Amino acid sequence: MGQTFAEQILGHASGRSDVQAGDMVVVNVDLVMMHDSLSPSIIETLHNELGAERVWDRDKVAVVIDHVAPAATVRQAEQQQHVRRWVAQQGISHLFDVGRGISHPVLIEEGLVQPGMLVVGSDSHSTGYGAAAAFGSGMGTTDIALALATGQTWFRVPETVRVNAVGNFQPGVSVKDFGLWAARTLRADGATYQSVEWHGVDFLSWRERMTLATLSIEVGAKAGIVAPTGLGAEHPVPEWLRVEADASYSRVVECDLSTLEPQVSVPHYVDNVVDLADIGRVAVDVVYLGTCTNGHYEDMAAAASILKGRRLAPNVRMIVVPASSESLHRAASDGTLATLLAAGATIGTPGCGACIGRHMGVLAPDEVCVFTGNRNFRGRMGSPGANIYLASPEVAAATAITGYITHPRNVLDSTEQAVFA
Amino acid sequence: MPRIWVFGNDVNTDQMVPGRYAPYMLGANDDVRRYAFIEARPDFAPNVQSGDLIIAGPNFGCGSSREYAPLALKRCGVGAIIAPLFARIFFRNALNLGIPCFTADIREQVADGDVVEFDLAAGLITNNGNQIQLPPPEGWMREVWAEGGIVPFYRRHGRFPATGA
């Protein structure tokens, strides 16, 4: 019988070619990612609890300062200083410091994550490495410390939910709408303990695929792997990683992208998704474009294409936090950034921004935010009294222009009407 | 005697300990214990006693990988968590910290504030004379609980759980 991507990768990483869903395996990890928020506790556990003096392989550890970058308090600055000194003391090869961006896109940009790899990270959105067809999985402090000490971890080989896309998006609709559709269809626990495979999106760049891979944890998944076809020469696919026709899936769902309408996740659960057309008039205080899910170059460009020649509505703040310095650099080079600034948006240091409610634009009680990120949990971005709506960069841009949650088509239509009036 | 604390469906780790109260954000001598459910259930941390039980709906612990969420519950002394489905990162973090998690739906058989007897080894809750038998956990989970978490388990056995000798 054929194998799913998860079975192939976990089989390869465990040295057992025949693994199936349900098997317990010990795997060699190709890369361990740790970020500033949890690194102090990971370092403590590694040395003081596990008694390990050194990481198992200094070339297979990536440390990323992205969660509060740059530091907002002296206490965080001290902890980041501690992490930098530890990196130097251990001789770790890969430190990505303040401003380089969020771990998930950065490690793919750096070529450290490649198709077929097994990557564990101290961040739940480590499923995002599936954008480059790696098995990426999020873990806590202790599991990451164990992986640092041993170069190994253990998994129950997951069953797989297969999500098929057919067709392509209408104007104003994009991959975020597909991802939110999947959350709506599968629900928040629809893939718990399982892997998600995304098929039929060969036309997307790896950054666009990261929207799907990061949203995989929002349906509970252990990994979210986008089929590696169409990735390009910089991401060579090993010959053993392929779609096997007779692989077994626990569930298969299909989305016709050509009939998909903009989706919005309404407070306070990610799977609380409705058609934008059905939510009525929701006035917005903040439009926030960023995160590993939708803060990439493509997302800024999509927003800029709608904001070009237009201005933010009065009383709307638009904060753009690029997912990586590479995305920011591209946006600065081709005029995208200038368009966003001309419309009235402002730009933050590449990184996680206010996604965890710690700095760079946290929300006040009763404020309403349209957010291109991945979680709208109560209190996620600051006050538990704030309301967060998850949407695409296109919807975010249209909303910034009108001041209420808006279909991108309506912004373009009304402007055209104004021009011809 | 343990008290029952009942929680709803899809309780996420941002509700357990908001990211704004992570150890990374706190003073060096502060204790994350104080912030367990600080906004979602402010009466929890000041009143929870060692050995108390959390009973919840499905998808308990969804969201982030922050181990300080179950760590806060451990430092509060939570004796076990019983829910019909646990989010996987939370389940693994709780196992690693040695917090017993039982996969079962007993929300119909207990109420918030009930004071019960709990026999961890037998997986038995006695509530006002009624016995609630929890499904037995996998043997390897019980082994990790018995060691007090994955670190002592690994240091003693030199291997991961459920993966043979």
Summarize the structure.
The complex is a heterodimer of chains A (421) and B (165). Chain A has helices at 5-14, 39-49, 74-90, 103-109, 141-150, 175-186, 206-215, 291-294, 297-307, 325-333, 336-343, 393-402, 408-420, and strands at 24-28, 31-35, 61-64, 94-96, 118-121, 135-138, 152-156, 160-166, 195-199, 223-226, 251-256, 263-265, 273-275, 286-290, 317-321, 346-347, 368-371, 387-390.
How many E strands of chain B? 7
CATH topology of the largest domain in chain A: Aconitase, domain 3
List the strand order in the largest sheet of chain B.
Answer: 1-2-3-4
Any idea what the shape of chain B is? Answer: globular
How many domains, in number, for the residues of chain B? 1
The first-level CATH class of chain B is given as: Alpha Beta
Question: Main traits of this protein?
Answer:
A: about 425 residues, alpha/beta, Aconitase, domain 3, five-stranded parallel sheet, 18 strands, globular, disordered C terminus, B: about 160 residues, Aconitase, domain 4, four-stranded parallel sheet, 7 strands, LeuD (chain B), leucine biosynthesis (chain B), EC 4.2.1.33 (chain B)
What does this structure look like?
The complex is a heterodimer of chains A (421) and B (165). Chain A has 421 residues and is of the alpha/beta class. Chain A has two domains: 5-234 and 244-256, Aconitase, domain 3 (2-Layer Sandwich); 265-420, Aconitase, domain 3 (2-Layer Sandwich). Helices cover 31% and strands 19% of the residues of chain A. Chain A is built from 13 helices and 18 strands. Chain A has helices at residues 5-14, 39-49, 74-90, 103-109, 141-150, 175-186, 206-215, 291-294, 297-307, 325-333, 336-343, 393-402, 408-420; strands at 24-28, 31-35, 61-64, 94-96, 118-121, 135-138, 152-156, 160-166, 195-199, 223-226, 251-256, 263-265, 273-275, 286-290, 317-321, 346-347, 368-371, 387-390. A five-stranded parallel sheet of chain A has the order 4-3-2-5-6, with helices on both faces. In chain A, α9 (297-307) packs parallel to α10 (325-333) and α12 (393-402) packs across α13. The longest helix of chain A is centred in the N-terminal third of the chain and has 17 residues, at 74-90. Chain A is globular and about 55 Å long. Mean pLDDT of chain A is 96; it is low at 416-421. Chain B is α/β, with parallel strands linked by helices and 165 residues long. Chain B has a single domain, classed as Alpha-Beta Barrel (Aconitase, domain 4). Helix content of chain B is 26%, strand content 15%. A four-stranded parallel sheet of chain B has the order 1-2-3-4, with helices on one face. In chain B, β2, α3 (68-75) and β3 (80-83) form a beta-alpha-beta unit. Chain B is globular. The model of chain B has no long low-confidence stretch (mean pLDDT 96). Chain B: Keywords: Amino-acid biosynthesis, Branched-chain amino acid biosynthesis, Leucine biosynthesis, Lyase. Chain B: Its EC number is 4.2.1.33. Chain B: It is an enzyme of class 4 (lyase). Chain B: Residues 50-99 form the Aconitase A/isopropylmalate dehydratase small subunit swivel domain. Chain B: InterPro entries: Aconitase/3IPM_dehydase_swvl, AconitaseA/IPMdHydase_ssu_swvl, IPMI_Swivel, LeuD, LeuD_type2/HacB/DmdB.
